[in-house]
Amino acid sequence: MSTQKPRPPGRRPNSRPFPSGAQGRTPPRDGDRGHRPPPPPPDTVYLWGTHAVVEALGSLRRKALRISATEAAVERIAELAADRGVPVSIVPGDAISARLPRDAVHQGLLLEARRLEPIALDALPDDGVVLVLDQITDPHNVGAILRTAAAFGVSALVLQDRHAPDLSGTLAKAASGGLEHVPVALVVNLARTLDKLGERGFFRVGLDSAGDGSLEAMDLPRPLALVLGSEGDGLRRLTRERCDAVARLDMPGPIKSLNVSIACAVALTVARLKAPAQ
Asked: Where are the transmembrane segments (predicted)?
């Protein structure tokens, strides 16, 4: 006669119920818990993904050190790497994943490289468009802004150094190579920087959904500084006070606010259409 106690209906042996709120979710694998990739060597950054790596290899501003690539991906960069004299190691995809954040989509390519040197504010051209970011810290948003900035030929991106995301990795992947084409100026004080831009003749326009006027209705002379605030707090008071105008994007639909990277693309489109005749 068996002494095993009957199980309650619907329960498997040694099973545990999901914790509250976790029904339907797959519990994390043991290998995913606490994944902490090793940091890159000193003075080195990691760039991953096809576009980020290819554009970095083609940039004379970037010092490329070495590449890890899977067999499937190596053909995408073999010629560029040979031209730049960058050594390439063929490795399994798991070996690349182990060196990167858990959600990194590396597409079989990892480049170790030196950081790009930020540019000085005095190096900004006097006839172009610059983007000034007021405490936008999410690397995906900043990366998307850099990608758009590269597409529109923006002269530079201005960031406050203590509120800037790391200019590598996730940001570079989101920028899809834009990081290699748009110089970045890191400044200590954003309000003083806007003062200096004003002294140099930049027309400073802050973007805000509650702006006084429509960006489309404004004259947008060159040089032009478009100032974007964070999605949560928008433009800070001192930043807003340094702008020559605060403009809104008049949207025809029921939703009037946009993700900051999308708002940047719309604003650059307007600025391009309203560029003064040469």
From this structure: none
**The token pair that represents 104 in the structure block:** 């990194």
Cα pseudo-dihedral 217, 218, 221, 224, rounded to 10: -110
CB 125 within 8 A of CB 223: yes
The answer to whether residue 143 sits within a structural domain is yes
Same domain, 141 and 61: no
- For residue 81, give both structure tokens: 């790497």
Co-location of 99 and 143 in the same domain: no
Number of H helices, E strands in the chain: 8, 11
Q: Which amino acid is at 112?
A: E
Residues 6 or more apart whose CB falls under 8 angstroms from that of 244 comprise: 198, 203, 204, 205
Q: Read off the tokens for 197.
A: 């831009």
Facing residues of 90 across strands? 69
| Model confidence, pTM | 0.84
Q: Which of 146, 189, 190, 191 minimizes the C-alpha distance to 165?
A: 146
pLDDT digits (tens, 9 = 90+) for 214-251: 999 999 999 999 999 987 889 999 999 999 999 999 98
Angstrom distances, CA of residue 251 to CA of 214, 216, 225, 248: 10, 11, 22, 9
Helix, strand, coil share of the chain (percent; to 5) = 30, 20, 50
In angstroms, rounded to a whole number, what is the distance separating the alpha carbons of residues 31 and 85?
Answer: 36
DSSP 68-132: EE-TTTHHHHHHHHHHHT--EEE--HHHHHTTS-TT---TTEEEEEPPPPPPPGGGS-SSSEEEE
Surface-to-core class of residue 136, CB atoms within 10 Å of its CB (0-12 exposed, 13-18 middle, 19+ buried): buried
Q: Are residues 246 and 128 in the same domain?
A: yes
